[in-house]
Design a protein that fits this description.
This protein is α/β, with parallel strands linked by helices. The protein contains six helices and 13 strands. It comes from Psychrobacter pacificensis. Belongs to the metallo-beta-lactamase superfamily. Class-B beta-lactamase family. This is Glyoxylase, beta-lactamase superfamily II.
């Protein structure tokens, strides 16, 4: 189907929110096909909220998702591929691992993979005009804060530990809440076809990161794409992945 035949969606209908347990809400863009559709994870905290990833950015995020309108939000990019940082500039500050802070500061379409993926094949329907694939460009956030392995993100009543998970990309991170045994895993692992061959992927790092997550007593996983899944499923998937790759 060509772009000319794809419908245009009104901005107020572009995003969808789905409540999960433990004060966690999925925000996504249902008009993007599932393989390409990024999961944005919102976590309600006592003093501030957490938002992990920012989607395509073709439609203003904070303006059209009421959940994000008034609260103090800690914005975190799990890594710097385009589908995860598109609307990062709408937030006062964006946190990202130091290994990819330079990409977030200058998010060109080559390094963020937008050149490779932003085309008709991504969409079931398009953002409102004047959006066009050829004009897609990500704005850099005004302020970038670097994260390191072991850093803690404190929401007042909830604490998430930053786990550096290189492999899919050098600065990939997962967030781990030990109290609820909740893992927000980014793109290192989710319940769907994994991308292991980007320009800055590394399979040795990938295996080390997989083993590190496999050692956690995870109850539930919220991945960067596709539906959430159990910790039991995570361990099976990682074991299968390591066996398949002979790593």
């Amino acid at each position: 189907m060509s772009a000319q035949s794809l419908a245009r969606i009104k901005p107020e209908s572009w995003y969808r929110t789905t409540a999960h347990s433990d004060g966690i809400t999925l925000i996504d863009e249902p008009w993007i096909k599932p393989f390409f559709r990024c999961n944005l994870w919102h976590v309600r905290g006592r003093h501030r909220d957490l938002l992990v990833d920012f989607g395509l950015g073709a439609v203003p995020l904070r303006r059209h998702v009421a959940l994000l309108a008034d609260r103090d939000i800690v914005g975190v990019a799990s890594h710097t591929h385009f589908d995860h940082i598109g609307a990062a500039s709408e937030f006062n500050c964006c946190h990202v691992h130091s290994a990819e802070a330079h990409i977030l500061a200058e998010p060109d379409n080559a390094r963020t993979l937008a050149d490779m993926f932003v085309n008709d094949e991504m969409f079931d329907a398009l953002p409102p005009e004047p959006y066009a694939h050829c004009g897609y460009k990500i704005a850099a956030p005004a302020k970038i804060m670097s994260l390191e392995d072991g850093d803690m993100i404190d929401l007042g009543n909830r604490q998430f530990e930053v786990i550096h998970t290189p492999g899919h990309s050098p600065g990939g991170i997962a967030l781990w809440e030990a109290a609820s045994e909740t893992l927000i895993s980014g793109d290192l692992i989710y319940d769907g076809p994994l991308i292991e061959d980007t320009w800055h992927s590394d399979m040795t790092d990938y295996a080390k990161s997989m083993r590190r997550l496999n050692a956690l007593p995870v109850r539930v996983v919220h991945g960067g794409h596709f539906p959430s899944f159990s910790g039991k499923r995570l361990h099976v998937m990682i074991d299968d992945w390591l066996r398949h790759h002979d790593l």
